[in-house]
Specification:
Layout (H helix, E strand, L loop, with lengths): L4 E9 L3 E2 L2 H6 E9 L5 E9 L4 H10 L5 E9 L2 E17 L5 E10 L19 H9 L7 E5 L21 H12 L2 E6 L6 E6 L8 E5 L10 E6 L5 E8 L6 E5 L11 E3 L5 E4 L8 H15 L3 E8 H4 L8 E5 L7 E13 L2 E10 L2 E3 L7
Parallel strand pairs: 8-10, 11-18, 13-16
Antiparallel strand pairs: 1-2, 1-5, 3-4, 3-19, 4-7, 5-6, 6-7, 9-10, 12-17, 13-14, 15-21, 17-20, 18-19, 19-20
Amino acid sequence: MLKGINLTLMIGPAVPVPVPKEVLEAVTGIEVTTTAGQASGFQLTFTLSNRSPLHTLFLLSGGAPIPLIRVIIAVTVNGTPEVLMDGVMTNHEVAPGSDPSHSNLTVTGEDLTRVMDYMDFNGLPYPAMTAEARVLLILAKYSLFGIVPLVIPNIFTEVPIPTERIPRHQGTDLSYIKQLAREAGYIFYVEPGPVPGVNVAYWGPEIKVGVPQPSLNMNMDAHTNVESLSFSFDSESKSMPVLYIQEPITKVPIPIPVPDVSLLNPPLGLVSPIAKTIKSLTGTARLSPIQAVSTGLSEASRSSDTVTARGSLDVLRYGHVLKARRLVGVRGAGTSFDGLYFIKSVTHTIKRGEYKQRFNLTRNGLVSTLPQVPV
């Protein structure tokens, strides 16, 4: 579509194939949204002749639950391929076009976690299996979709004793995996790539460390690579989670305040506001002490982000595809807001002649912890 940017669109049941030229030329817009803590989604917009057989093809494929119609969206920026979405169609809408002979077809879908939410396996037993083993067993069913599990063992792993209790599946695969993630203080998501047709199913702690992506520059003349970037600081939003552990003999609940910093969630800002409110975590008394602590650390991490940033950029000028759930540096915003941020969400908007991204950043304090932001 653009010099330096090539679009790849693949559609098909189970194993998608590149779409014909007629379909690719009918594309007028693509939007892909990736948000930490939520399922990713996409929207394809086509302008088609009212006599085009593609109307029937898309509507029939979207109405058939089996086989699922899978969609892969990938871009190549300056020779570097990036898979933006691997998901399934969920909805179709047809609206009048710019002239009586054409109409607009909008296809909406979600990532492959949607496939895990169709069937209910309630009551399936998992005797003497850790949470990690249960997640691996569940994800093995979806290898047909190219899903490769990346399961991080919990430091506080518990093995249920069969004579005391046998864990049982509750709800769909997706709901049960998310339940196990909450109990461990973890997150779960499916990320496409590194090549089309392959996906990584991550079950583990939310990681806010690692090599940052190329920095976002503002107010730096020729080095500026963002179209807009604004910041906000909310000192009232931070709270201190307090969990309760039940003493096994006296049954007395013991309150334990939870810090908002861990090895995988280091402070990205030097000046962090003091928590002005206390949030009691309900339901932790019925959990084991290990599960309660894991849940508390996860909640403390979520409530600590008091600095947020919103902006947009042109991918050609930036030179890379900004990816969510990773770190990125910010330069030129001043002492208070320069530094590293966690990318909370990214929305890709691709049209003929342009490729732009909107993004949301978060961190847990003002003033950078680094003397110099990585370029």
